[in-house]
Write the structure tokens for this entry.
Amino acid sequence: MRAMIVDDSRAMRTILRRLLADCGYTEIGEAANGREGLDMLNAGYVPELLLVDWNMPEMSGIELVSAVREHPEWSELILVMITTETSIDRIEEALSRGADEYVMKPFTKDVLLEKLEIIKAARTS
């Protein structure tokens, strides 16, 4: 399984990489901002799962989510915002722009797994 982590924090990317590896992801790409993530997608690295932080330089996570959802060929890509943004307005905005789920930092592996199971169940029903 293939995933991509888009977060400007190297430490967070390392934590998420380990967590995804524990969840069975064997190919894990990393980008330090939304622009890098979008460039990777355009270059052909299209994962099943994209974990995106909100606040990043050059292109924010919410801008990346919007850009990804503009491409029909990426419609099956699972997008999960993983961020410190905790307001209801931010959650609603992320979901309305195309994020499948929203995880607030700090979180546990179990929380992420539960969110992924919810997304997969919703897509199969």
In short: The longest helix spans residues 109-124. Helices lie at 10-22, 34-42, 61-69, 88-97, 109-124. DSSP finds five helices and five strands in the chain.
